[in-house]
């Protein structure tokens, strides 16, 4: 069993659309592995073109029967990938009836925040300030001088300052967190710099556009309520950033994703009830109406309780809506929770608890058997055999502690349990190879841009794949033994490779060394 994780194509430096493919599979020695399989040019940017590129990647890897093994597809939310009628997932489901497709959870988390920003005026206003900051130092022709001035001010005030980042960068939520964090940490420096820009005593006057941005930002940053809101949002983004980073783990399973979501939502509920660490620290530092040397306007003792509740409730609503298929108890992904011994009913001496324990999970296992019927037929097993092993599994696993992942890996790797749970192991493999995030693919495209740079824009797709494979899957430089590779290069040329000087006579090269002499000489040099 294996799952493919596909993301829509990215354009490289040669202006070519590429599709990257990762596979997640189980190996008895290595456990669950997510590995780079290949990258391929997209001839046409519609679903058939993407599917053709994916097919080519699998064929080049020698996996002509890949459609018999694939059980899961994770992609970004583009219509070409997950469109209900003509997307890649829809076309694959016509041939693979049991295939499950999911939109990357890390992307959906960021979209949940974007939905919230669209609904709340305070969030919109802060977003505009962050964008103004980025424009002030990025698009202005005097950006370098402005940044130098910031650093000079920072040295004078013993403050640290970083260049404001773009709020609309990569579709990963930590970038939004970073933009807000820079604003909060370098608050005093930004205020001092903008006050200098709007000062009538300044000899060099900025352009009207720059002056207007500076006045707007300064007006916002001197409000006690706004500064307090900035720090409340930073507390909120701390929880969302942690969730986003957890979503980007290669080993993430659907059950773990649900646990992380619930923990994050609980953290947002705590912020609704009382201020977070950043907001508390800001309020303590601004007790006398001055915060980090800046006199604030409209000083108040209000802790924004109404805004905190409104925003945390709104974030919770949108996150739950975006991740509904994972959180819903009726989804096929949630039916795998019947394997999780951590959520089973407690078994004691009462008849009621025994009955609840015996019946728990049976309906879900039957649903899984029905959904993956074609897989069970191919593996030569039946629903009755799976249910029989599930009863044994419940007796064996009910006293165990630890995550479900460790339990399932044990029954797949221990020889005695492989035989005991031979049929139930099919579902264990399916569950463990479900990829719910495309973070690996995003990292793969970053690798592609490093390998196929402006100076190497004519790399063929074959050489690009090989170089990316070495970068992503190859050994580290600390552990790599280059002797074998150098010997191969030394002996593979049609002419002798002699880096040193070779004597010539009037009749041409003399005493041409043999391959054995070459190898011996190279070995001596390497030693």
From TrEMBL:
<feature type="domain" description="HAT C-terminal dimerisation">
    <location>
        <begin position="416"/>
        <end position="470"/>
    </location>
</feature>
<dbReference type="InterPro" id="IPR008906">
    <property type="entry name" value="HATC_C_dom"/>
</dbReference>
<dbReference type="Pfam" id="PF05699">
    <property type="entry name" value="Dimer_Tnp_hAT"/>
</dbReference>
<dbReference type="InterPro" id="IPR012337">
    <property type="entry name" value="RNaseH-like_sf"/>
</dbReference>
<feature type="compositionally biased region" description="Acidic residues">
    <location>
        <begin position="516"/>
        <end position="527"/>
    </location>
</feature>
<feature type="region of interest" description="Disordered">
    <location>
        <begin position="500"/>
        <end position="527"/>
    </location>
</feature>
<dbReference type="GO" id="GO:0046983">
    <property type="term" value="F:protein dimerization activity"/>
</dbReference>
<protein>
    <submittedName>
        <fullName>Zinc finger protein 862-like</fullName>
    </submittedName>
</protein>
<feature type="compositionally biased region" description="Polar residues">
    <location>
        <begin position="503"/>
        <end position="515"/>
    </location>
</feature>
């Amino acid at each position: 069993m294996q799952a493919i994780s596909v993301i829509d194509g990215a354009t490289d430096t040669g202006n070519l659309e590429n599709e990257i493919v990762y596979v997640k599979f189980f190996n008895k020695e290595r456990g669950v592995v997510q590995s780079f399989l290949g990258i391929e040019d997209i001839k046409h940017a519609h679903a058939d073109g993407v599917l053709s590129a994916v097919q080519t990647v699998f064929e080049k890897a020698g996996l002509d029967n890949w459609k018999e093994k694939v059980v899961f597809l994770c992609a970004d939310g583009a219509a070409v990938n997950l469109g209900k009628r003509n997307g890649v997932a829809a076309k694959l489901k016509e041939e693979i009836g049991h295939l499950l497709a999911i939109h990357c959870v890390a992307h959906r988390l960021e979209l949940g925040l974007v939905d919230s920003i669209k609904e709340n005026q305070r969030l919109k206003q802060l977003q505009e300030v962050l964008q103004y900051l980025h424009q002030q130092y990025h698009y202005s022709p005097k950006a370098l001088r402005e940044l130098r001035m910031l650093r000079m001010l920072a040295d004078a005030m013993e403050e640290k300052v970083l260049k404001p980042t773009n709020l609309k960068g990569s579709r990963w939520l930590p970038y939004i967190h970073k933009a807000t964090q820079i604003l909060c940490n370098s608050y005093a420096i930004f205020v001092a710099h903008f006050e200098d820009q709007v000062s009538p005593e300044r000899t060099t006057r900025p352009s009207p556009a720059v002056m207007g941005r500076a006045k707007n930002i300064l007006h916002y940053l001197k409000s006690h309520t706004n500064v307090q809101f900035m720090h409340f949002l930073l507390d909120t983004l701390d929880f969302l950033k942690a969730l986003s980073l957890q979503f980007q783990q290669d080993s993430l399973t659907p059950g773990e994703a649900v646990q992380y979501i619930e923990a994050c939502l609980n953290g947002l509920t705590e912020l609704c009830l009382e201020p977070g660490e950043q907001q508390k620290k800001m309020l303590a530092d601004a007790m006398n109406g001055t915060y980090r040397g800046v006199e604030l306007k409209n000083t108040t003792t209000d802790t924004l309780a109404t805004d905190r509740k409104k925003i945390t409730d709104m974030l919770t609503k949108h996150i739950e809506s975006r991740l509904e298929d994972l959180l819903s108890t009726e989804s096929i992904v949630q039916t795998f929770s019947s394997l999780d011994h951590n959520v089973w009913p407690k078994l004691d001496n009462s008849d009621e608890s025994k009955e609840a324990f015996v019946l728990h999970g049976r309906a879900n296992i039957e649903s899984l058997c029905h959904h993956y019927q074609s897989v069970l037929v191919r593996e030569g097993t039946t629903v009755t055999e799976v249910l029989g092993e599930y009863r044994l599994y419940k007796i064996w696993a009910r006293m165990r502690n630890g995550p479900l992942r460790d339990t399932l890996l044990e029954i797949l790797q221990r020889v005695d349990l492989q035989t005991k749970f031979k049929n139930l192991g099919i579902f264990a493999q399916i569950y463990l190879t479900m990829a719910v995030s495309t973070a690996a693919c995003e990292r793969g495209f970053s690798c592609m841009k490093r390998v196929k740079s402006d100076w190497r824009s004519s790399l063929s797709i074959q050489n690009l794949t090989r170089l990316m494979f070495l970068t992503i899957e190859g050994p580290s430089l600390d552990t790599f033994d280059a002797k074998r590779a150098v010997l191969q290069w030394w002996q593979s040329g049609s002419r002798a490779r002699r880096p040193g000087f070779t004597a010539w006579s009037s009749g041409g090269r003399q005493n041409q060394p043999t391959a054995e002499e070459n190898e011996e000489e190279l070995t001596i040099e390497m030693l």
